User: Fold this.
Amino acid sequence: QVQLVESGGGLVQTGGSLRLSCAASGSSFSFEYMGWYRQAPTRQRELVAAITSGGRQNYADSVKGRVTISRDNAKNTVDLQMNSLKPEDTAVYFCNARIFEYRSGITRTYWGQGTQVTVSS
Assistant:
């Protein structure tokens, strides 16, 4: 079993920055990709950014140029650096990972519990 634990959310003013971190715990697994999603009240969960095991990155149009995703394969972590934050970035941010578990030979998708990001105007 793998657990994803997020940290780094909080309250920031418009134009500010936040760095979110997600750490995966468990054993005998590898990542196909890791990413961040967000969900604002009354809206559907949407992709913010993702990164594959090979390092290829994908960003939502709404955050391109303001957000950078990075990962540390040795530490099983993925970070999301968010700059020039806007009120519309306010949401609960969820870590997401597609993981291959060596013991079972199964690939599963995992979600973190979410961390709140609030950008004040």
Notes: Residues 41 and 91 are 7 Å apart (CA to CA). The chain has no helices and eleven strands. The chain has a mean pLDDT of 94.
